């Protein structure tokens, strides 16, 4: 009887599976950033390649931004979130300067960034930030952040696609991990390397990362923030920088102090 007839099966004997629709608002656009603090300077650097998978979207996309005369911010991750976040940070710093007639210090900027990131923790900016610059006492400082606002001050930090390649190198060269001092010599202290040595480490880091990682390359931008009254002979002196590198001194932003900021550019491999 039809009342007890079996339900017709599909022609292939397999029922259609459950179909799920998902929306992912984020994208990883590659590239890498790093920052190293010295006794009276900081170096903040990033490459200029922006990619999506195996496609290069542009060969010049800024990842490092000057915020004040004492602070520079590097961003990496989702490029759209990074550009929007930098815009909002600059807006908050402009409001502060209008209200207090002075620029915000780097320690306060680090706290501001932490508050802004944590406030978006349920739909976070997909951005890893590194803040470098000069403290109120004239020493170099580096603050690193995760996307939801956890941060700490360090002597050096790398982030981005080539972090796993660059950070162990920095641990060895800046923190002197796995190094044994010569007999009778004191253990070196992180954060006291000369500027010329730090610049060489940054260049070597990105040069090697470019050879090993397809999402890093095209160009290198390095910002050097110097404390006031510091000599520039170890940066602008003859024969200090390698061939092919250009140097530009950036003008003061607002009513800052006597700190000086230089922008160094160098081409990287374009493969």
Structure description:
The chain is an alpha+beta fold. Helices cover 25% and strands 27% of the residues. The chain has 5 helices and 13 strands. It has helices at residues 79-100, 106-119, 163-173, 195-212, 233-236; strands at residues 32-37, 41-47, 50-52, 55-58, 64-66, 71-77, 127-134, 140-145, 151-154, 156-160, 219-226, 246-250, 260-267. It has a 6-stranded antiparallel β-sheet, with helices on one face. A hairpin with a 5-residue loop joins strand 7 (127-134) and strand 8 (140-145). Helix 3 (163-173) runs antiparallel to helix 4 (195-212). The protein is globular, with a radius of gyration of 24 Å. The model has no long low-confidence stretch (mean pLDDT 92).
Give a summary of the structure in a few sentences:
This protein is an alpha+beta fold and about 270 residues long. The protein has helices spanning about 80-100, 105-120, 165-175, 195-210, 235; strands spanning about 30-35, 40-45, 50, 55-60, 65, 70-75, 125-135, 140-145, 150-155, 155-160, 220-225, 245-250, 260-265.
SSE ordering: EEEEEEHHEEEEHHEHEE
| Helical residues, percent | 25-40%
- Count of alpha and pi helical runs: 5
How many strands in all?
13
Main-sheet strand order equals: 10-1-2-11-13-12
Mean pLDDT: 92
| CA gyration radius, whole angstroms | 24 Å
Which structural class is indicated by helix and strand composition?
Answer: alpha+beta
The proportion of strand residues reads 25-35%
Seen as an oligomer or otherwise, the chain set is single chain
